[in-house]
Amino acid sequence: MEKLKPDVVLKDFWRDNERFASLFNAVVFQGKEVIHPESLREVDTEVSNVIELKEYRETLEKSRDVVKKTAYGVDFVILGIESQMKTHYAMPLRVMLYDALGYWKEYQEISRSNRKAGDKMTVEEFLSALRKDDRLHPIISVVVYYGEDPWDGPLSLKDMIVDMPDEIADVFSDYRMNLTQVRESSKYDFSNEDVRTVFEISECIFAEKFDEIQKKYGNRDIKAELAIVIGTITESTHIINQAAEQKGGFINMCSALEKLEKRGIEQGIQRGIERGIEQGIEQGIKQERKEIIVQMLRKGMDQGLIKEITGVDEATIEELRKETLM
Questions:
Q1: At what angle do helices 314-325 and 303-310 cross, to 10 degrees?
Q2: H helix or E strand, kind and range, residue 288
Q3: Which of 153, 147, 249 is nearest to 206 (CA)?
Q4: 0.85 exceeded by the pTM?
Q5: In this predicted model, what pLDDT tens digit does every residue of 90-111 receive, in sequence order?
Q6: How far is CA 52 from CA 35, 45, 56, 59, in A?
Q7: Using an 8 Å Cβ cutoff, are 232 and 205 in contact?
Q8: Closest Cα to residue 84, out of 27, 12, 137, 11?
């Protein structure tokens, strides 16, 4: 089958409003139902813009993974998801740029509308084309990290900055990103069953807790679509292929994992055999080198010269010299 692109699989998964809302409520709002699925509307992920400052002009082309708008009170909030399969050591800066471009985009829309209206403005309002009571709407971003290894990158802009004296650190404007790691997602309470299933099984696969998956999902089939997402997160083509064969149906994860676990054992045995052969060869080379050094010592060769020829350290040569004299 044609290889699936992880970014496409994950974007499709999060486009569902119930899954999207469940992620934000669990990760950002500590389980409180702040975001309601029925109020979510998908918006353009394109945040590219032209930045103009006096004579400076640059076009920044950026696109977010999934962005939605939700009504909150009488206004709205912009919510964005960024997916990461690997640690990105500039992620706080990247998220800050996405958010900043989002604010800049709204600012330009408001300023164009004000200029078009042609209403009288004060001198101060004319400078920015913003009226004194104009307001931007909040943007909240969540980074979802799917890697098996712990995230070892920065969590805020401050983490990317050199050590600062207290006087500088006190006035420095930090920018913190919201990060959730699939490998430790059990600490969250996801209201959506699809999100809970994908994160729970993926976390267990990373931790090799196949017994837990058997206990909870042994008698349950899950949607093939979810299995493809799990296979994408855990980088298992075996699970993806098993799910793809169902063509929109259901799959028993335990059966798929049994084959995956068996194949892992077989690969482990093969790696063990190969490692044993390599170690045997290496041991043979060491033994042959040892015999050569002994012959050199018996012929009275200088130990410094032996070290230069063989590359063996002085302590080992001295030990062999003592054995030769015994």
A1: 120
A2: helix 253-298
A3: 147
A4: no
A5: 999 999 998 998 898 889 899 9
A6: 35, 22, 6, 9
A7: no
A8: 11
